[in-house]
């Protein structure tokens, strides 16, 4: 398969299984991408990530631009040579981080100027610079430079911003020189259906190897977010991968996969692991809770990860209390495996035409009798409820 | 082989290779024991430790007594059931930690009273209590309760202390009930040859599965320490393992193995790794040094560890600068592998009757032309220089 030519291999309602070829291997969707902000998924060896089924790692352009700098990463052969993960990488454009880390100094047509959180330097990021940095980093999948407006934003701002993001997409594409990187466009429009539709349709005027749904999971409710996902995947072409940026809660993955989303990323599984919590089908276990100190069972019965196969909740709770790195490591490993098992289960269910059953079984354990309306609605829109 | 019946399988000068059977497997000496203070070698999975050749892990009775408590560890099946390392464990007596952590409140014939660094509680540790705690923890090798006096200490204090330690050894032995744990006695006497000899000879009146050389590497110079090691191994029986406590610098291992020491432990390789340094044949690389950011070679050319096989100094230096956990993990892994390769190289050299060559080759890289006298003297005493 030629790089980036996405192929849907199975469908159930609006959910689908697909193959996305990249220069560093073909990956199967839906999939969750662990975040390696500074070129390392915190606490985990690349071989551990491979073992638990990670397929693509995400690195943050903002962080790597500041340290160690794009030219240094290029000199080591890009992320693949630098960071020990030989499979596909995805880099974001840096835009979101500039805004979310709050060091933004100026935003205008040209781009953004921000202050480095490391040394206070003023740094400019433009579509051209973002692409140049992403070309130096060398990821397989790269992102157009966009603005992700805060939530809530006035409608007029959202509108002006999404139009600028479209002009930035055009500049990003013009700046791009490497044929071995696939550039995704990013749709915006906040939670306004008209603006979201406008942004999506205008972005689709560019024929790209994939499209990302941006500007969501930034503070709005699930009731506001999922109609935007539904609207987006209804407009996006079947034969292109859809990437819902920054989403990583298990229930969000199940709802979004039902609507035909293929790619996800989020710091949630690793961050919540470092904070001492384990993802389980019922939600989240806080290992700081004293009752876990006595428990001999694994984090999650039936989980095949190294943490669950070899350690008890009691031991991991002891590590968390004692501030031992190994606690964060085992929880991060399990939490990522939890999300990978979730997408693997979804793939099997889609292939067997039983995604509705899969989602219902998930919801029963996650929510009990009170399955929230936003979840049922998303699944119903996807043709599964 | 019956547990703890040590067998010397090869000799070169005073250096030797031996087999030490324990209930959780026979280990080959000389060996270095990674320290898992709170039941975890910081940042490393048990399978990573197995892969790099770790054979025995050490856990600290002081820490585990305070948290999670011996009864909780016992309820999980002791350290073997609790902490995911199924091979042999060794626990110290807690005495050294009480003194070195500086929370000591009282020391008398009965034992010590110290203040918990966790909650301020006053806790008593006696020979009987130390053994009871170590029996609950369930390590294969346990240590008699001793006092490790600070350096320097007045001769009169050293003398009174070592005599009390001998009485504590007797009480430790009387308190011991589990036949599946081997108890080592600990010799003291500071750097006073007469007292060191006295302590060793008196300790030898107890027929034990092994003997530890205690009270060294606590601040004295190498010139003061190695004559004590020499004197000790000359007195200790050939058919018992000798354990030099708290020693982990590579040059110290090479000198001490030459004198017939079999077991070592130290936090040095993991602690120095967490602080950003790598052990190499020439000494130590500080990865915080800017020049390493550009270096594409591994931490140590020819090292077979996962860190050296997959990552450059440049990447690891980036991780260290960025405060990424993975930096500490990769450095700890390499540093432990460095010491394990050192003892493995020593074993091969002893078997082939060329320990002198081994020590000279080590010294040439480590010290260049100026091999310190204490090192040459130790090697000469061992019959290798």
UniProtKB/TrEMBL annotation, chains A, B:
It comes from the Bacteria. It catalyses: 7-aminomethyl-7-carbaguanine + guanosine(34) in tRNA = 7-aminomethyl-7-carbaguanosine(34) in tRNA + guanine. Pfam families: TGT. Binds 1 zinc ion per subunit. The active site is at 92 (proton acceptor), 265 (nucleophile). Substrate binds at residues 92-96, 146, 188, 215. Transmembrane segments: none annotated. Keywords: Glycosyltransferase, Metal-binding, Queuosine biosynthesis, Transferase, tRNA processing, Zinc. Pathway: tRNA modification; tRNA-queuosine biosynthesis. It is an enzyme of class 2 (transferase). One of its GO terms (molecular function) is glycosyltransferase activity. Its EC number is 2.4.2.29. Zn(2+) binds at residues 303, 305, 308, 334. Residues 246-252, 270-274 are annotated as: RNA binding. Its cofactor is Zn(2+). SUPFAM superfamilies: tRNA-guanine transglycosylase (SSF51713). Residues 14-366 form the tRNA-guanine(15) transglycosylase-like domain. Homodimer. Within each dimer, one monomer is responsible for RNA recognition and catalysis, while the other monomer binds to the replacement base PreQ1. Belongs to the queuine tRNA-ribosyltransferase family. Catalyzes the base-exchange of a guanine (G) residue with the queuine precursor 7-aminomethyl-7-deazaguanine (PreQ1) at position 34 (anticodon wobble position) in tRNAs with GU(N) anticodons (tRNA-Asp, -Asn, -His and -Tyr). Catalysis occurs through a double-displacement mechanism. The nucleophile active site attacks the C1' of nucleotide 34 to detach the guanine base from the RNA, forming a covalent enzyme-RNA intermediate. The proton acceptor active site deprotonates the incoming PreQ1, allowing a nucleophilic attack on the C1' of the ribose to form the product. This is Queuine tRNA-ribosyltransferase. It comes from Thermus aquaticus (strain ATCC BAA-2747 / Y51MC23). The gene is tgt.
């Amino acid at each position: 398969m030629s790089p980036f030519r996405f192929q849907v291999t199975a469908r159930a309602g609006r959910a689908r299984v697909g193959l996305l070829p990249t220069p560093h291997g073909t990956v199967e969707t839906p999939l969750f991408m662990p975040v390696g902000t500074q070129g390392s998924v915190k606490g985990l060896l690349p071989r551990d990530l491979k073992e638990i089924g990670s397929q693509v790692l995400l690195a943050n352009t903002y962080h790597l631009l500041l340290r160690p700098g794009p030219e240094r990463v290029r000199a080591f052969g890009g992320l693949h040579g630098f960071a020990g993960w030989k499979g596909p990488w995805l880099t974001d454009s840096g835009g979101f981080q500039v805004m979310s880390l709050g060091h933004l100094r100026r935003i205008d047509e040209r781009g953004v100027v921000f202050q480095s959180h490391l040394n206070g330097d003023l740094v400019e990021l433009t579509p051209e610079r973002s692409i140049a940095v992403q070309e130096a980093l060398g990821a397989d999948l790269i992102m157009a430079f966009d603005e992700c407006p805060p939530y809530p934003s006035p409608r007029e701002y959202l509108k002006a911003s999404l139009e600028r993001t479209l002009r930035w997409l055009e500049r990003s594409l013009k700046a791009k020189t490497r044929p071995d990187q696939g550039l995704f466009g990013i749709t915006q429009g906040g939670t306004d259906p008209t603006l979201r539709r406008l942004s999506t349709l205008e972005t689709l005027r560019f024929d790209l190897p994939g499209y990302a749904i941006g500007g969501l999971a930034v503070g709005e409710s699930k009731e506001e977010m999922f109609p935007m996902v539904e609207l987006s995947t209804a407009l996006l072409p079947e034969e292109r991968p859809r990437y819902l940026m920054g989403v990583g809660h298990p229930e969000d993955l199940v709802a979004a996969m039902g609507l035909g989303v293929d790619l996800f990323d989020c710091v949630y599984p690793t961050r919540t692991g470092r904070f001492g919590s384990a993802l389980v089908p019922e939600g989240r276990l806080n290992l700081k809770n004293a009752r876990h100190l006595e428990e001999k069972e694994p984090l999650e019965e039936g989980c095949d990860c190294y943490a669950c196969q070899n350690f008890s909740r009691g031991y991991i709770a002891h590590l968390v209390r004692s501030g031992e790195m190994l606690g964060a490591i085992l929880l991060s490993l399990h939490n990522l495996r939890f999300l990978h098992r979730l997408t693997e289960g979804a793939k099997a269910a889609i292939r067997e035409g039983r995604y509705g059953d899969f989602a219902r079984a998930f919801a029963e354990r996650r929510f009990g009798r009170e399955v929230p309306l936003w979840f049922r609605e998303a699944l119903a829109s996807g043709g599964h409820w």
